[in-house]
C-alpha cells in the first residue's frame, strides 16, 4: 500500500477543501443553531461530483476510489460535521448498495438522480427496538400482486425529513430470522410513506434525524434490492463501507479541533506570552496531532482494502473505533485549551465537541466495533 496520495487525489482533496472553507464553514454555526438542512451546499456539491463520488461514470457519477472519497468526507466534515454525515449516508449507505446489489434497471433509474443531487439518500435500518440487533426488526413486507406492502416504523434516520430515496429493510419471512429480511428502494412519494417525529439532538443538528413511518406503503416489486432474504447481508456489507465514511467524518472533526487549537494558542496571551509557549498546551496539541494522523491512516487503510475488493469488517471497525474516540478526545482537549471561551458558542470548538459524540454511536457503537474486531481475530 502506498500511503502518499497521488496527484489526482491531492488535486481533488484541495478542491474539496477550498470549497468547504469558502462555502460550508462560514454557515456551519448558523445551520447548527437553526437546524437548517444544508440544501444550498449539497446542490453545489452535486455539481462538483461529491454526491456522486462512488457512482460509476456511466451512471453520471465521478467513479472515484474509496480512498479519495474518504478524504472528501473528511474535508467536508472538517468544515461542517452535519454536511459530512449527509454526504456519507448519501454515498455509502444509499448509492453503494444500489451499485453493488441493484439490477441494471435500478441503476439506470436511481444512480443518476443521486449523482445529480436531485434527491438525497437515506438508510432505513434502525427501528425503536432494532438498532444493533437488526434481527429484531418488526417492519414487514408482504407481496401483493405486483407490489410489496410495507408496514413499520424506522427511527434515527439521517436526512429522514429531506430524503427522496431510501434503502429500507423489512421482514418478508418471519420464520427465517435474519435470512427473512429483504431490502427495498423506497421513494418518499410512495403511497403510505410518512415522516414521523424529528429529533431534537445534542449535535449534528443540520443533518436532521427523524422517524419514517410506513403505513401500508406500496413498493413496486421491481424495487426489491437483490433477492428476497438478502437484506441482512446487504445491510451488513453496506454498513462496513458506511463505517469508513463515519470514521472519515470523525477525522474531519478531530482535524478541525486541532486547527482551532493551534490558531487560538498562538494568539491567546497569558502571563505576557502566547499560551502556545507553555508545555501543558504543547503536549495537548502534540497528542491531538498524533491521534489525528493515526486515525487518518486507519481510515485510509480501510478504504484502500475496500478498493482492493477485500473484506473490510475488521479494518472498518478499527478505523471507526479509533477515529471516533480520537474526535471526542481532541474536541475535549480543544475546549480545555480555549478555557472558558471554549465553553461558549462564540467559538466553534463547542460545536465540535457536541458533533464528535455521535460518531461513537451511530453505524455501530464503539462497543459493537470492539465486538466486530474481536470476532474477526478470534474466530
State Rg: 21 Å
CATH class category label of the largest domain: Mainly Alpha
What fold name goes in the CATH topology slot of the largest domain?
Butyryl-CoA Dehydrogenase, subunit A, domain 3
Number of strands: 10
Helix segment tally: 11
Main sheet: strand order: 1-4-5-8
List strands and helices in order, with pairings.
Elements: H1 7-24, H2 28-34, H3 39-47, H4 66-79, H5 81-101, H6 104-116, E1 120-124, E2 140-144, E3 147-158, E4 163-171, E5 181-187, E6 193-198, E7 209-220, E8 224-225, H7 231-267, E9 269-270, E10 273-274, H8 279-307, H9 313-338, H10 349-357, H11 366-378
Parallel strand pairs: 1-4
Antiparallel strand pairs: 2-3, 3-7, 4-5, 5-8, 6-7, 9-10
Helix pairs in contact: 1-4, 4-5, 4-7, 4-8, 5-6, 5-7, 7-8, 7-9, 7-10, 8-9, 9-10, 9-11
Explained architecture:
With 379 residues, the protein is an alpha+beta fold. It folds into three domains: 7-120, Acyl-CoA dehydrogenase/oxidase, N-terminal domain (Butyryl-Coa Dehydrogenase, subunit A, domain 1), CATH 1.10.540.10; 122-231, Butyryl-CoA Dehydrogenase, subunit A, domain 2; 233-378, Butyryl-CoA Dehydrogenase, subunit A, domain 3 (Up-down Bundle). It is built from eleven helices and ten strands. The chain has helices at residues 7-24, 28-34, 39-47, 66-79, 81-101, 104-116, 231-267, 279-307, 313-338, 349-357, 366-378, and strands at 120-124, 140-144, 147-158, 163-171, 181-187, 193-198, 209-220, 224-225, 269-270, 273-274. The strands form three sheets. A four-stranded mixed sheet has the order 1-4-5-8. Helix 8 (279-307) runs antiparallel to helix 9, helix 9 packs antiparallel against helix 10 (349-357) and helix 9 (313-338) packs antiparallel against helix 11 (366-378). The longest helix is centred in the middle third of the chain and has 37 residues, at 231-267. The model has no long low-confidence stretch (mean pLDDT 97).
Amino acid at each position: 500500500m502506498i500511503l502518499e496520495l497521488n496527484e489526482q487525489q491531492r488535486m481533488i482533496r484541495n478542491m474539496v477543501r477550498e470549497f468547504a472553507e469558502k462555502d460550508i464553514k462560514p454557515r456551519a454555526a448558523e445551520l447548527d443553531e437553526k437546524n437548517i438542512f444544508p440544501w444550498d451546499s449539497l446542490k453545489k456539491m452535486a455539481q462538483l461530483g461529491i454526491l456522486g463520488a462512488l457512482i460509476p461514470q456511466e451512471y453520471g457519477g465521478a467513479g472515484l476510489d474509496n480512498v479519495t472519497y474518504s478524504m472528501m468526507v473528511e474535508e467536508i466534515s472538517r468544515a461542517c460535521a452535519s454536511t459530512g454525515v449527509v454526504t456519507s449516508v448519501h454515498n455509502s449507505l444509499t448509492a453503494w448498495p444500489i451499485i453493488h446489489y441493484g439490477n441494471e434497471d435500478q441503476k439506470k433509474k436511481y444512480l443518476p438522480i443521486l449523482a445529480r443531487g436531485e434527491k438525497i439518500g437515506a438508510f432505513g435500518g434502525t427501528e425503536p427496538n432494532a438498532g444493533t440487533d437488526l434481527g429484531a426488526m418488526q417492519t414487514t413486507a408482504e407481496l401483493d400482486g405486483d407490489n410489496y406492502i410495507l408496514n413499520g416504523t424506522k427511527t434515527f434516520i439521517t436526512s429522514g425529513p429531506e430524503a427522496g430515496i431510501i434503502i429500507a429493510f423489512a421482514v418478508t419471512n418471519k420464520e427465517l430470522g435474519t435470512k427473512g429480511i429483504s431490502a427495498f428502494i423506497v421513494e418518499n412519494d410512495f403511497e403510505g410513506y410518512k415522516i414521523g417525529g424529528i429529533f431534537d439532538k445534542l449535535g449534528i443538528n443540520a443533518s436532521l434525524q427523524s422517524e419514517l413511518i410506513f403505513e401500508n406503503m406500496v413498493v413496486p416489486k421491481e424495487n426489491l434490492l437483490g433477492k428476497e432474504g438478502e437484506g441482512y447481508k446487504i445491510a451488513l456489507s453496506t454498513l462496513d463501507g458506511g463505517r469508513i465514511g463515519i470514521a472519515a467524518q470523525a477525522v474531519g472533526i478531530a482535524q478541525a479541533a486541532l486547527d482551532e487549537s493551534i490558531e487560538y494558542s498562538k494568539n491567546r496571551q497569558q502571563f505576557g506570552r502566547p499560551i502556545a509557549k507553555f508545555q501543558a498546551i504543547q503536549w495537548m496539541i502534540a497528542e491531538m496531532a498524533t491521534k489525528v494522523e493515526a486515525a487518518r491512516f486507519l481510515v485510509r487503510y480501510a478504504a484502500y482494502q475496500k478498493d482492493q475488493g477485500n473484506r473490510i469488517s475488521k479494518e472498518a471497525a478499527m478505523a471507526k473505533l479509533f477515529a471516533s474516540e480520537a474526535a471526542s478526545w481532541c474536541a475535549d482537549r480543544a475546549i480545555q485549551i480555549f478555557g472558558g471561551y471554549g465553553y461558549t458558542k462564540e467559538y466553534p470548538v463547542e460545536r465540535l465537541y457536541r458533533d464528535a459524540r455521535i460518531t461513537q454511536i451511530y453505524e455501530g457503537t464503539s462497543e459493537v466495533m470492539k465486538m466486530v474486531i474481536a470476532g474477526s481475530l478470534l474466530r
